Amino acid sequence: MDLFEKVMERAKTADLGKYQAGADGYFMFPKLEGEIGPEMNFRTPFGVKPILNWSLNNYLGLANDPEVRKADAEGAAKYGLAAPMGARMMSGQTVMHEELEAMLAKYAKKQAAFVVNFGYQAMISIIDCIVDRKDVIVYDYEAHACIMDGIFLHKSKCGGEKMSYVYPHNDMEKLEKQLKLATKKVAETGGSILVITEGVFGMAGDLGNLKGITDLKDKYNFRLLIDDAHGFGTMGPNGGGTGEHFGVQDKVDLYFATFAKAGAGIGGFIASEKPIIDYLRMNMRSQIYAKSLPMPMVVGLKKRLELMTTNPKYRENLWKIVHAIQEGFKKDGFDIGKTQSPVTPVYMHGDPNASDVECTAEATNLLLDLRENYGIFCSIVVYPVVPKGTVMFRVIPTAAHTLEHVERTINAFKECKKKLDEGRYKAKVVDPWSMLKSGKVEF
Ligand SMILES: Cc1ncc(COP(=O)(O)O)c(C=O)c1O
């Protein structure tokens, strides 16, 4: 069979592929336009609508901050988008990159930091670099895809030998069990142990149990790598991240975060002891063989970091909105799970006995109603990521939202929940287009 034909067969049955016709351009790959912030425009083939946006990880509202925009523009005007050309190691190193790294190391309370061009690739590379075939990785079951890809790469080097152990999400007893097994294993191989968790779990907003994990360091010999993509800039008294929040940052051996969330940019960094950072700089394949982060981003990131570290108003505004929306949802009887961070999941329950296609139809109809009739834009997560019949809304508050936005949103959620409970979103078809075309989105 021709490879492309085979791929197209697979596409028809792939989890998201089977919804492509009805969802592409609306539920998936939606187009948001206008200035980045809570009030944007949502473009579909049937027009452009203003929406109240709760789907951006622009936690501190920096994306559109006037000082940030000015720094970005000046960086672009002075250096252009191409500079520096080449990988850091070859021809892409600059004083600006080094200055940014010094600022990041200070903020993360580590000896040194290394700036990377993309968070996802960097995480894969960090794992690839830091462990070899004799070492064992112990990781949380809900680890982000980039951590999983790093673990897959490690697996590929271990010749079929089991060298990675997973523990159920935040289950410290099971983690200890796995550490016991891992300790035995590395005694045989002569290797070492790396534990990996997220600081803030980006889907449900709960925190990695960093206190529990670091306490286990008294009993077991391991190093800890944290992916704090959602905690950097948002958690801890100074925004220094989830390690700072728990008061255990000194026990986090490798602190990783991306600039794609609170940093309102692109790229990321890893911070640790200086010799380890030097080793990573020299050996991370995704950085040695790929272009350096462009100058306008580096200049812009220095400004963002300066604002994050010197002006608490960004975090204060963020947490004012986080508390208002989370307390508001709870007061109105909504289940927001175990979040302890700005990430705000809202769980609703449709028909658990429906087929997966029917469950998705019910969930997407609800989302359609929320977007078209209430002008509220957020993302949803459906089966199989959450149990059948459950719809998880992912609401992301930012410093740029207002209390009026919060009130409007909770009221809209209340009305939609009522309709869900009345079974008004049940439908066989997952196709928003016919309703949008008719101009009538009614449930
Ligand atoms: C936990 C976590 N790690 C890593 C990444 C990847 O970061 P980037 O967007 O910088 O590649 C993300 C982004 O979604 C994330 O949520």
Write up what this structure looks like.
The chain is of the alpha/beta class and 443 residues long. The chain is built from 16 helices and 14 strands. It folds into two domains: 183 residues, Aspartate Aminotransferase, domain 1, CATH 3.90.1150; 246 residues, Aspartate Aminotransferase, domain 2 (3-Layer(aba) Sandwich), CATH 3.40.640.10. The chain has a seven-stranded mixed β-sheet, with helices on both faces. A four-stranded mixed β-sheet has the order 1-2-3-12. It has a three-stranded antiparallel β-sheet with strand order 11-14-13, with helices on one face. Strand 2 and strand 3 form a beta hairpin. Pyridoxal-5'-phosphate binds next to helix 5.
List the helices and strands and how they pair.
Elements lengths: L2 H11 L6 H4 L7 E3 L5 E6 L2 E7 L12 H14 L15 H13 L4 E5 L2 H12 L5 E5 L4 H12 L7 E4 L4 H18 L3 E6 L11 H6 L7 E5 L14 H5 L7 E5 L9 E5 L1 H10 L1 H4 L6 H16 L2 H19 L12 E6 L6 H19 L1 E2 L1 E3 L8 E6 L7 H19 L10 H7 L5
Parallel strand pairs: 3-12, 5-6, 5-7, 7-8, 8-9
Antiparallel strand pairs: 1-2, 2-3, 4-10, 9-10, 11-14, 13-14
Helix pairs in contact: 3-12, 4-12, 5-6, 13-15, 14-15
The structure holds pyridoxal-5'-phosphate.
The site of pyridoxal-5'-phosphate (PLP) has 13 residues, from helix 5.
